[in-house]
Fold:
Amino acid sequence: MGRHEMEGLTVSIEGEQISGGGYDIIGMFTLEGTISPDNDVSIIKHYFDSHRVLYKGEYDGANLLHGIWLIGFDSGPWEIRFRASKAEKQTAKLEMVKSQ
Structure:
């Protein structure tokens, strides 16, 4: 089994809700979870017509979610690093140009 890179991953944090989806070697999945005011994270990864994976961990408040995944008695470390979207990069460029 081992580590599975997630492709086409989208993750959105709105208030205390986390949502998203993507695919990996197992198949397509959705992500749904919560983030507490203390930045504790709980996410369920649900593969279509298959099993679920529980992700427990924390959010650094900027660009990193990390912790431990659990499937039955099996577990391991995980992390998701956020990158700026094309729109956010473009906005940052525009703001940089404006400030010069």
User: Anything to note?
Assistant: The chain has a mean pLDDT of 83. The longest strand covers residues 7-14. The radius of gyration is 16 Å.
